[in-house]
Amino acid sequence: MLPDEQTAPEQFEAFRRMSPERRLALAERLYWSARELKAAGLRALHQDWSEEQVAGEVTRLFTHART
Length: 67
What we know:
Radius of gyration: 16 Å
Largest sheet: none
Shape: elongated
Number of domains: 1
């Protein structure tokens, strides 16, 4: 991990102060943002795909994603 990609101590402290509900809401927003970005990338790569194809591929990719 590059130095600018590391989480700052202030960020950790901000997350610690958040309620569990707030952290969950942020995680959910991040998840849906990632799906939207992936869909946009697929649309750019496969301009001939229908929205159904894009949505299906996003679902497939996120279902089989590994960290």
